[in-house]
Design a protein that fits this description.
Blueprint: H1 11-27, E1 33-34, E2 42-44, E3 49-55, E4 67-73, E5 81-84, E6 88-94, E7 97-101, E8 104-108, E9 113-116, E10 122-126, E11 132-138, H2 140-146, E12 151-155, H3 177-188, E13 198-199, E14 207-208, E15 214-219, E16 230-237, E17 246-248, E18 252-258, E19 260-265, E20 268-273, E21 277-280, E22 286-290, E23 297-304, H4 305-316, E24 322-324
Antiparallel strand pairs: 1-21, 2-3, 3-4, 4-11, 5-12, 6-9, 6-11, 7-8, 7-10, 9-13, 14-15, 15-16, 16-23, 17-24, 18-21, 18-23, 19-20, 19-22
């Protein structure tokens, strides 16, 4: 039987309405400062942990690129094991414990940073007498948008009894299109399973940048990590000073590890303090200020650069997705006596 599809409006009108409603919906989710005090922690008996959501589809502020969560694991507790198709960055706020990644146990303490690779089995353990708290940032919302966000639970099964990470096929010999695809994909993930997984805060060293801060790499391919685009760096603002103003496509999230200050975003001031998350949306002029004249302020900037930002740069070329002033409005930091980078770090 022949079926005829008819509508009362044209393709142009349908698409225009759909696009307008999408933007209107997602603009309603925007919020610049997400306060730690507003994050509700929920018990998760299945994983033997507690979790709260700063931003992401699992909470009250959906996102389409990055999510941000807080996790708490009780004293002398081990979580169940699971894995997922997205990678994540984990930053330890307090307590001491360990994370097992594909059978490799990594011990951690405050301000250590770990990478949880896509499809790597992982679980967490607390060896201390009090709860341990850590933060995660991931690209789960982006993969969910593409329909490839997959989650797999392993309970308490030993990792050697669980399936290994999926692997790319052995590259085929030849120059035909399918061979070239296998060669390209195999090369792209070469070394991923032996890449760096942890940055000990004891070992990091900061460098003063032209933008007006001391910066410390936490997760980045330049220091041996293999992520799908996630990166994290700690920016330290000098007492009473600031970073230069700039803007870019793609969002950037900044978690306030210590200190107080404010960000001026598209000419609007937003105050923040320790534990808050600053969400800088795409193409907003922004600048971060330290409100204290006595001590530095530390912020972790999380970006999804290669996976999303580089793709956007190609798609919108010749538009530029990064812009700063012709002459940087950064302070002169040549006379600053920076504190030891371990100063203010909580005890394990």
């Amino acid at each position: 039987m022949k079926t005829t599809t008819q509508t009362q409006v044209t393709h142009y009108e349908v698409q225009k309405k759909r696009r307008a409603s999408l933007i209107e919906e997602w603009r309603s989710y925007r919020k610049t400062i997400l306060h730690r005090a507003d994050v509700v922690m929920h018990d998760d008996p299945a994983r033997r942990m507690r979790r709260g959501v700063f931003a992401g589809r699992d909470g009250d502020r959906p996102t389409m690129n990055l999510d941000a969560s807080i996790h708490e694991i009780g004293a002398h507790t081990t979580s169940t094991i699971h894995r997922h198709s997205w990678d994540a960055i984990m930053f330890v706020e307090s307590g001491s414990g360990w994370t097992e990644i594909d059978g490799q146990r990594i011990e951690w303490r405050p301000w250590d940073t770990l990478h949880l690779p896509a499809w790597a089995w992982h679980r967490h353990g607390n060896v201390g007498e009090r709860p341990a708290v850590f933060h995660t940032w991931s690209v789960q919302p982006m993969l969910e948008q593409f329909g490839v966000a997959l989650l797999e639970e392993g309970g308490d099964t030993p990792v050697d009894q669980l399936p290994p990470r999926p692997k790319q096929p052995t590259p085929l010999v030849g120059s035909h299109p399918y061979a070239r695809r296998t060669q390209r994909l195999a090369s792209q993930w070469e070394g991923a399973e032996s890449a760096r997984l942890v940055t000990r805060f004891d070992d990091v060293r900061g460098l003063v940048t032209k933008r007006g801060a001391r910066s410390l790499f936490l997760v980045d391919k330049s220091i041996g990590y293999h992520t799908a685009g996630l990166s994290a760096v700690m920016h330290e603002l000098a007492p009473g000073l600031y970073q230069s103003r700039h803007r870019h496509g793609g969002e950037a999230w900044l978690y306030v590890v210590s200190g107080t200050g404010y960000s001026v975003i598209d000419e609007v001031r937003h105050d923040w303090s320790e534990g808050d998350l600053i969400a800088v949306d795409h193409w907003e002029w922004h600048q971060h200020f330290n409100a204290s004249n006595e001590r530095t302020a530390r912020l972790i900037r999380v970006h999804n650069f290669d996976a999303l930002y580089d793709m956007m740069r190609v798609l919108v070329d010749p538009l530029s997705l990064f812009e700063e002033l012709p002459v940087l409005d950064a302070p002169d930091l040549s006379g600053i006596a920076w504190p030891d980078h371990l100063a203010g770090r909580p005890e394990a």
